[in-house]
Amino acid sequence: MGSPIDHSAHYTATPAEVHAAFVDPAYWRMRLAEVGGPGAEIEDASAGDGTIDLTLRQAIAEEHLPSVVTSIRPGDLIIHRTEKWERIDGDRARGRFSAGVEGMPGKVEGTLSLTSDETGSTVVTEGSVEVKIPFLGSKIEAMIVDELVGLFDAEQRFTADWLDGSYPG
Predict the structure, then answer these.
(1) Whose CA is closest to 22, among 121, 100, 150?
(2) What is the pTM of this model?
(3) Which of 49, 73, 78, 158 could lock onto 102 through a cystine, CB 3.0 to 4.6 A?
(4) At the top level of CATH, which class does the domain 3-164 belong to?
(5) CA–CA separation, 28 vs 2, rounded Å?
């Protein structure tokens, strides 16, 4: 069944402005450089007509991992992540994401929704983390959810700076 992921990010920008960033390859290159971790890169990208389909490579350095993870799989965690955004429809857009870690039996997957709110827009991330390791799976799932929420928060800060023009890069 896995552990749930539930995260909301608010932006003062309109849904159209947020969506325009999310389907811009330049935004993704800068976002990965800023918050993607060691060796982060875009492995594949297809963008156009208001959509984007990405495959990303990200990593969590071994020194930032708990011993329960490094005892099973030493070294940096290499994460292959996909994110796909559909065209915006009025003030709404939908997306999907997934991720897997090299050498670990598990998956992360879910949905993204961008909608308007009273002061701008909100992106809601919902999904689950499932790690199939007897006795340790739920502990590792909880660690992954915590890491993902931290990453989503960093991505939110980057995106807010990108949208208001204050990103220094």
Answers:
(1) 121
(2) 0.90
(3) 78
(4) alpha beta
(5) 28
